[in-house]
Amino acid sequence: MRVKFAPLSGFGTAAAILAFVASLSTTAQAQQDEVSIPRINRGTNQPSRPNIVFILSDDQDVHLNSLDYMPHLKQHLLDQGTFFSRHYCTIALCCPSRVNLWTGRAGHNTNVTDVSPPYGGYPKFISQGLNDKWLPVWLQQSGYNTYYTGKLFNAHSVINYNNPFPAGFNGSDFLLDPYTYQYLNATFQRNHDPPVSHTGEYSTDILAQKAYGFLDDAVTAGKPFFLGIAPIACHSNVILPLAAAELPIFTAPIPAKRHETLFPDAIVPRTESFNPDQPSGANWIKKLPIQNESNVDSNDRFYRQRLRSLQVVDEIIDKTVRRLEQYGILENTYIIYSTDNGFHIGQHRMQPGKSCGYEEDINIPLIIRGPGVPAGETTDIVTTHTDLAPTIFDIIGIPPRPEFDGIAIPLTQTVLLEAKQNRYEHVNVEYWGFAIEEGDYGTTFHYNNTYKAIRVIGKSYSLYYSIWCNNEHELYDLARDPYQMRNIFPSNHFNSTQTSKSKLLGHPLSAVISRLDTLLFVLKSCKAAECVRPWETLHPQGNVQNLRDALSPKYDYFYEVEQRRVAYTRCEPGYIIDAEGPQFPVDGLIYRDGHAWSAWV
Q: Does 94 qualify as catalytic in the annotation?
């Protein structure tokens, strides 16, 4: 069957066809599930506080159209909830992004910046004192029962799973390294029991049954609950090395047997940035060779395997929703669907992978349905992973913690409309360490992949600005260049005649760059409220709320002359502050008659 799939904005007939294809393999199991759900007398003392089910996929894209291939996600979540089209992770790597999500704090504040020690992974999470300062602990303290199954953090392993156990769960069943990413050789570890190997069984199917069991337990307990479901799809299949000197082996994801022939004609979307004739990007990316036909064919196969592996995740969505409905609690349950980071395949000539600041890697799925959430809506307000813990606090009715680097995402029509006028417009993006190439032609680790970046999306502008650890700069005007192909950053912008003549947003390019650089300067080391309202650090009077305000010519001297610049002294694989240049901008300005008078700090 040849199917032409619709773009993200209009699932329509394509989704209906996909639903039919999926139903061929799921109808019999669905009927069995209807019968297997325990009959529980919920009585009259059931909780009125809402329940939360959080489904977290792995490495899932928005820009490669993976959501178009998930008919149950469309039926139950997109059609019944709100799609946040401008949702971003703040670091495009599994473990640091998940720590950001569950703590509500940016990577430079958690100091978990990698997937393994010494700069990241579960051991770093523990050593940073975060095991009692994260969402499941706070939820339990607020009267919720908490359950979780699937991938938690990288380097959470068969050796250290109990050193200590992750805190805050009434029930847990975690995937453990070095087998986390082996679709047919998973090891799970339940509660405080020893790990159990499942050689030859399909990992996501095992996880699904564990998730349904925890849902049954949660309903039986009769308290409001949080249930986290974290499959590895559509991450690559990975065999992690047992010896330190060896490298991991990345291959395409492995789908369940019943899905392995779906979508035979699907290919990576051929956008302007896909395997371009001319190099693009910066740093190591601009040195990549064009991919030959065999390489492209291999990456298309890799793409199809990703789509196929997501079909079990789509089934989990369907069966979870139906269970909630049969228990009579669907209308009192928020369902949140997201992923840890995005993914690229062929964009800017890159092999499959993540770890970069381009849209494919950082703009990721977020869909929320629940009480009061508009159904079938799409919003373009800016949201990030650091907003999700504050959002869950808001859902359950407790005040945000002072250390949160994000704020609650609006979930009702009225507040969503207000947010379009007054919500922040920036995303702080950061990364430390290496980038890994995946797929059949991915053989390289790029070790100089440390960078700082910001994404700024206003009512009339859409910009990306980044500085790599070798001090190369990138600037893209996504309103005119949505695939980030034309870097408009000049080599010596502050004293460049060319820059003074060039215009962006109706202002000299140098003026825009100086504002972006200063905004990035604040965000790269921001804490708490400063991460949400960075302009107030620069303009304590509150008269500048966004980039457009900051572009007033009366501030030119302050931004173009007085401010320090973002710069690295060297590349490091982790958050080493003395490699990252000056940390604090000039602030404390007093404005009189349109003139700036500086109070240096």
A: yes
